[in-house]
User: Fold Methylglyoxal synthase from Brevibacillus antibioticus.
Amino acid sequence: MKIALIAHDRMKEQIVQLAMAYESILAKHDLYATGTTGSRIMEATSLSLTRFLSGPLGGDQQIGAMIARNEMDLIIFLRDPLTSQPHEPDIIALLRLCDVHKIPFATNLGSAEIMLKALELGQLDWREVVHEENEA
Assistant:
């Protein structure tokens, strides 16, 4: 599975803690992250990630391009609901693309943990069928 890990500035510590807690699950998958989030996760864990630009500099759009090609299987985007974001339209575009392509999208720690536990139990394996259909 291809998993994107994204977090707003005030949520970066939470996503690092999440990655540490679920490192054994995440290590079995291809991981992607926006700039600083990816750096912080790699510093705190042994996980290997493909890093994109910082979100406001286009990293959200780089991940969005993968979503548009149905090349992403799960998005964990810990959003800061209390701080205005200058790149809010990019975030809304990610949500819309995930809805169009039926890609699970977790926006807070609770939903992220549920998604990762489901991933561990094989409950997101249906995404493999999506990839097979796209190749046909």
